[in-house]
Amino acid sequence: MLQRAILIIAIFLAILVALTFGDALLSQAYVWVSRVTGWVVHNFADVFAGIQYYLSTHTTKVLLAIALTIPVSWWVFRSREKELKNPANHRKIAIVLAICLGWLGAHRFYLGQIGIGIVFLVIFWFFPPLAIVLGLIDAVRYFFMTDEQFAIVKT
Fold it and tell me: Which of 43, 117, 139, 147 could form a Cys-Cys staple with 105, CB 3.0–4.6 A?
């Protein structure tokens, strides 16, 4: 159930990013990257302020992304039910989550490693660049693992 919820969130974020690309791509990307990497973000309050600002300025895009997330998620779950249960796909999803949301520990929560996911959140609270680097390191580790090695890490 948690894996499905995280997959829905990832689909929502992917759609939201796709909708945002047409709107001042370079300036928004620079602002986002600077906030995520800790140049501007010093704690969760700044992240929440950034999210609140984004929601207030792009309400239509967020609502459209939510509206598109529901049918896309339903289609993915219906058409790819057997493939989503394949361990190799769990590794691919964990890699994407580690790249996109690794700084929040989303990949660890997806793999059922709640404690380590909370550690990622604590690290992000005190030193955001370290959380980003650790998320990217996990993505690289998962990428170079075999399915058997990943099954061991997942447990």
Answer: 117
Tens-digit pLDDT profile for residues 31-85: 666 666 654 445 566 777 778 888 899 889 888 988 888 888 888 777 767 766 6
Q: Is 24 left (phi over 0), alpha (psi -120 to 50) or beta?
A: left
- The amino acid that residue 137 corresponds to is I
Q: How far is CA 31 from CA 36, 40, 47, 144, in A?
A: 9, 9, 12, 31
Our CA angle for 104, 108, 111, nearest 5°, is 145
